[in-house]
Amino acid sequence: MSDIQYQAFETRQKERGIDIEAVKRELKALKVETPSWGYGDSGTRFKVFKKVGVPRDPFEKLDDAAVVHKLTGLTPSVAIHIPWDKVDDYTQLSEYAASLGLRIGAVNPNLFQEDDYMLGSITNADENVRKKAVDHLLECVEIAKEVGSDIVSLWLADGTNYPGQADIRKRKHWMEEALAQTYQALESGMRLLIEYKFFEPAFYHTDLADWGMAYNTAVKLGPQAEVLVDTGHHAQGTNVEHIVAYLLDEERLGGFHFNSRKYADDDLIVGAINPYELFLIFYQILAALRDDEHPGTQQTARRIAYMIDQSHNIEPKIPAMIRSLLNVQTYYAKALLIQWDELEDAQAKQDVLRAEACVREAFEQDVTPLLHAVREEMNVPRDPMKAFYESGYLDKIQERGVGGASW
Ligand code: PSV
Ligand code: MN
Ligand code: MN
């Protein structure tokens, strides 16, 4: 991409009334957390394909995450999942992260991979199982404190497969009790992010099925509990950006798990299936940030935890992560090119077509020259994917062999 192309881009955006320096500042400030489990082997219930060079332990996952951060400048933190990333010494893990220019981000409890949890974890009718699950949640809060993280991010697999299988309201009460105990253990400044999903692994009812249930639970718990929107966890056709706007307005949008879905919780590369949705999510966030009349909403928007949550089944792990991040950056950049004065004028005049065009036109801008310029100013490669393939890192990790960490 030549400077001529960047000049043409800048001229065009200035004509549109866009403050390019402000756009660049926002792009440089964008940070997206990557998940430790996105670097390990994963699959479906049919098969986990084992890849050569996959990290064998949490430390090697951090090594890979550091490469991604070095090449993109976007990913200074890594989410961990316990017990997948269980280590003897969490201080050592966070010090190792720091030595690579990273920090440990959200701590994710795992309440779905033990036989005891087959019929539920914190919603299980067996009091002993519920206690075990709460102990694990409390352990995760302690781990977050040890690694210096301010986020515990909870996804609950609990649900039932058949009508009558369990008492839905009793399960709701048990869930609320368990989460209240977890909430009590948070220090000030820490947040509990509550993720919802409408089905799977349970196929009749899920205890935290949608944003309304997650929101209600968060409100009951208190201000340190917020909702996490995983973009892949909605039924077909759901207007996810509307949910985003609503939760921002209620000051309860805590974070995102970015990925794409076509049919269900497919965990495909973010932006690969419906890039317009990703753009429209950022449109709502940027609109909230501009809303001077609602400082609480602005503050909520400012501290959103952006995270990737993908399990790459057939893709090479590190390039898949880089692709995901570049997609997030691209659609964020496009949203930053919305001409707000024009949009607000069209909305005030109730000019439907002009308002729609205003949003769509930002999406249609080619941001490639802008992203090349921003990356240069951030001292990262203009083309991080190409730089990765040329770096020799893939050859270097061959020595790890096959059979690294799964999820
Ligand atoms: C399962 O659906 C899931 O993908 C959730 O999105 C969680 O965030 C993730 O696993 C890790 O527990
Ligand atoms: Mn998720
Ligand atoms: Mn999921």
UniProtKB/TrEMBL annotation:
One of its GO terms (biological process) is rhamnose catabolic process. Pfam families: AP_endonuc_2. InterPro entries: L-rhamnose_isomerase, Rhamnose_iso-rel, Xyl_isomerase-like_sf, Xyl_isomerase-like_TIM-brl. Coiled coil: none annotated. The keyword Transport does not apply. Keywords: Isomerase, Manganese, Metal-binding. GO terms for molecular function: L-rhamnose isomerase activity; metal ion binding. Residues 88-266 form the Xylose isomerase-like TIM barrel domain. This is L-rhamnose isomerase. It comes from Novibacillus thermophilus.
